[in-house]
Amino acid sequence: MSDPGALGRFGNFGGRYVPEALIPACEELEAAYRDARKDPSFERTVAQTLEVYAGRPTPVTPATRLSQELGINLLLKREDLTHTGSHKINNVIGQALLAQRMGKRRLLAETGAGQHGVATATAGALLGLDVTVYMGEVDTQRQQLNVFRMELLGAKVVPVTSGSRTLKDACSEALRQWVSQVDEAYYCLGSVMGPHPYPWMVREFQSVIGTEARRQCAGLLRRGVPDVVVACVGGGSNAAGTFAGFVDTSARMVGVEAAGGAAMTDGSPGILHGFYSQVLQDEDGQVKEAHSISAGLDYPGVGPEHASLGLSGRVEYTTATDEQVVEAVITLARMEGILAALESAHALAWIIQAAGSGDLAPGSTVLMTLSGRGDKDAGQLMTLLA
Ligand SMILES: *Cc1c(COP(=O)(O)O)cnc(C)c1O
After folding, report:
1. Number of domains in the chain
2. Is 180 part of the annotated catalytic residue set?
3. Of 47, 64, 93, 215, which is most buried by a Cβ count within 10 Å?
4. Can you give the CATH number for the domain in which 21 is found?
5. How far, in Å, is the centroid of ligand 1 from the Cα of 194?
6. Kind and range of the H or E run holding 110
């Protein structure tokens, strides 16, 4: 995918809409990242850490029984098999190594489902950096186990009690805290959002998913490239990382949002957390709350590059409902022995629906990024299905 322009924009989207006090911090970060990208020893350290610590490369698994049932050829890119259980570790290892290179001593992070918080706490422990995680109070209750995991890993978890007490409020608080601690703290942002350079930098760190998958597909498929590439979209980082590997091919690309938090489908252009993109908002520009069964997709915005890819038509964006998602989790568990995260199951829910309706032609080869494992959601599902 293309790099953003000098102002950090993908088309019209993106930019840097932050308080005056944060502009130097964003500029320092951009300069440090541009410098690190050019340094082969930094690139090597990131790649090596992903390999020996995070378990990369992750496999591509043919979903054999489910493929037969759906009449397609379904391949799963297994980010659920990484250390800490989701693709978030790819970005966090990159950013934590960058923070260390910049001489920062503390990582700040926001988290929704807790996955990004756990990944940041993990990277902090690995590199000996302090970690403070901001988490909406509602999410701390929905994901108690992840709060405890972060604390076990030595991180401090701060419940955020403003607004809807979910991910968007945690993001606001983390940005506020970055302003006040900018000398010693590095803000480790969890998706392809926020002010420039985050949407670009996070996509680059996640592009390891698409790069690997492209190589693996070349070995697995006669045509070398799948017909369709599908990923779930919250902020959009696993999707951006996946699409980066296929944007220059003929593959149809589909991003699937939660029906209750579909910034691409139901949003309009606006500013949120430092960037201009598609945002769920009312007529007065008040940001609406997102509602999804999965805390990780409960975000009213989407990364600016997705807004641009949607506008150009290169990527299609669609939605899945909570009911379809629960059904998809159960289907994958029973037919393939894989317990997917609720977030990841959005992508599968669309695939199941599209195979049934004929939107996916019989015999199509479909690559789906399975962004994370579902162990964290087992308690929630137990209550729901009781
Ligand atoms: C956080 C999360 C997501 C959503 O984040 P993106 O930035 O859209 O990738 C998806 N899947 C899992 C497992 C997650 O933890």
Report:
1. 2
2. no
3. 93
4. 3.40.50.1100
5. 15
6. strand 106-111
- CB 296 near ligand 1, within 6 Å: yes
- Ligand 1, atom 10, lies closest to the CA of 343
Same domain assignment for residues 23 and 131: yes
> Could you tell me the two tokens for 4?
């953003």
Give first-to-last CA distance, the chain, whole Å.
44
pLDDT mean over 315-322:
98
Query: In the structure encoding, which two tokens stand for residue 150, read together?
Result: 């972060």
* pTM of structure: 0.97
Structural tokens at position 371? 């962004």
Q: Give the confidence band of 72 by pLDDT, cuts at 50, 70, 90.
A: very high
Q: Which atom of ligand 1 is nearest to the CA of 112?
A: 1
Based on the fold, state whether residues 197 and 232 are members of the same structural domain: no
Predicted local distance difference test score (pLDDT) of residue 91: 98
Could you say which of 88, 104, 168, 376 is catalytic? Answer: 88
312 annotated active-site? no
Which residues span the domain enclosing 180?
A: 9-49+88-202
Answer yes or no: 88 catalytic: yes
Does one domain contain both 368 and 245? yes
Question: Where a domain ends, among 202, 228, 250?
Answer: 202
pLDDT grade, residue 298 (50/70/90)? confident
Q: Please name the residue ranges forming H helices in 181-292.
A: 198-220, 237-243, 263-266
Atom 14 (ligand 1) nearest CA: 296
Helix axes 23-37, 40-52, angle to 10 degrees: 90
- Whether 131 and 95 map to the same domain: the answer is yes
Question: What pLDDT does residue 113 have?
Answer: 81
The answer on 341 and 290 residing in a single domain is yes
DSSP H stretches of helix in 85-197: 88-101, 115-127, 137-142, 144-152, 167-180
Amino acid making up residue 362: P
CA distances from 310 to 4, 121, 302, 313 (A): 16, 33, 11, 5
Amino acid at position 135, single letter: M
> For position 160, what pLDDT does the model report?
97
Nearest alpha-carbon partner for 160 in 133, 121, 188 = 133
The closest-lying atom of ligand 1 relative to the alpha carbon of residue 238 is 9
**Domain co-membership, 133 together with 254:** no
- Residue ending a domain, choose from 202, 217, 241: 202
- Dihedral, CA of residue 309, residue 97, residue 50 and residue 87, to nearest 10: -40
